[in-house]
Amino acid sequence: MVAGISLALAASLALASALGARQGGVATFVGVLVGVSGFLGSVSQLLRDKFAGVPRWKRVAFATGMAGIFIGTIVALLHFQAPPPPLHRLTGPRDVAVVGFKGNGPGQNQQVLDDVSATFAHDLGKALKDTTVRDYATEYSLPLAELLHRDHHGLETRTRKFIDQSNAAILLGGIVTSGDAGQTLVRPAVYVRPDQVTDAPELAGWYTGQPLPMDAGWQSAYSRTAMVSELVQRARGLAEFTHALDAWRQGNAAQADHALARLLPGGGSPTSDSGTGFVTPDLVHLFRGHTLEDIAVTDPKNIRRSALDAARAEYLAIPDASPTQLRAQLSLATNTHLRALGRHPSCVPGTVQAAELAKASAAFRRLADDPAFTRLGQLKASVDLAQVENCRVSAGLVADDGTIDRALRRVRRAQRTEGVKALAAFAASVAAQHEAMYQRYDAAIFNLRQALALEPRFAVRALWETQLAVLERTARSSLLRRNVTPEP
Length: 488
What we know:
Elements: H1 2-18, H2 25-50, H3 56-79, E1 96-103, H4 110-127, E2 133-135, H5 153-166, E3 170-178, E4 184-192, E5 205-208, E6 212-214, H6 221-234, H7 238-249, H8 253-263, H9 281-298, H10 300-316, H11 325-340, H12 354-368, H13 375-394, H14 403-412, H15 420-437, H16 441-454, H17 458-481
Parallel strand pairs: 1-2, 1-3
Antiparallel strand pairs: 3-4, 4-5, 4-6
Helix pairs in contact: 1-2, 4-6, 7-8, 8-9, 9-10, 9-11, 10-11, 11-12, 11-13, 12-13, 13-14, 13-15, 14-15, 15-16, 16-17
């Protein structure tokens, strides 16, 4: 009887599979029944016959070994599964990936949110010209709800993997929560890739906007349609924003500044009066400040001070309650450092503003240890702290108390993910300056060569190669002065 049942179950499972039935929970249950019935019908009797005169400890050892094989096989089968199909890879320089909306708290139906994500991607694709928009909500899961908390490590790791697989130029998503009065709140989120902001890797990462309220919730078809339309309207500034990022990455800071200025309220763009959404004024202020600083650095003689003042005004325009406030504080500290060096940047004694350098140093020190800051932000604050402290030591304002070495060591030992590599190169260049200050030229040359090995940008490499040539020439002169003949 048991053997017949086992045969019937196995045959039905094989036939249903051959006819195209999807293998779900019922198929798994039937397969387990086949195994159990087969075991009961034959193996149990065999074991009783063979183990009748075997000592108890051997029977226990045998049972334990078989249980281990059973559990190990289950673990192996679950671990070595067929890999999921590869994600659709985007190829355009401004292609958008919609990664879905994640509910946080009770009353959020993820299936409904996935439907909203698909509709949003479809409608946004029609609204944006020369841009491919694709919905990945059901293909790849990102824990966007982490944006509501301090620890974003899991989200950042998953996002990097998604970027590698999808090649999306920009990511859009959102977090859905419930308000105090029971209304539904949708908080838009946008992700900027590290390779889009190579001059300021700390700006990479997720940015969230102010929540958009829904009166009736997702159950109302009218309310759902209205929210999707509103989200599409709030995302229209993406085309100009990504255009500005492209211009900045290609070294055209003036063009990037012009595009970002249009996105600010009153700037002339159709989306410039939007106070909420994906590309918020706070986000634009932050990025525009950096483009203005790039302009100041490339043309220091004529407009350095005015451009730095304009960048400072952009950072100060970001309110304290803004989600971008920590990044704004870091940018403001960098701006203070640049302003403290004067019209001709130098750390020669008597040429710097001591009070401003001290203010910048204190801000970098605080941000480097702020647990609410992103990992890239903390590392950027650390290397900036080392740079400004090196300047203060060189200018004779403070003694070298080891802060520089500790800050640089933290950055150079960090895992070399995208964005961190650029900071490690910068840290190596600061280490070279620090060693050169003490006339340890061999160590300075070694560090600068490490910086060059990590830095791909031609303009930065040209500057460091010039510094390297000066260091090597100075090192040879130093050896000659000490009557030591350098090796060829």
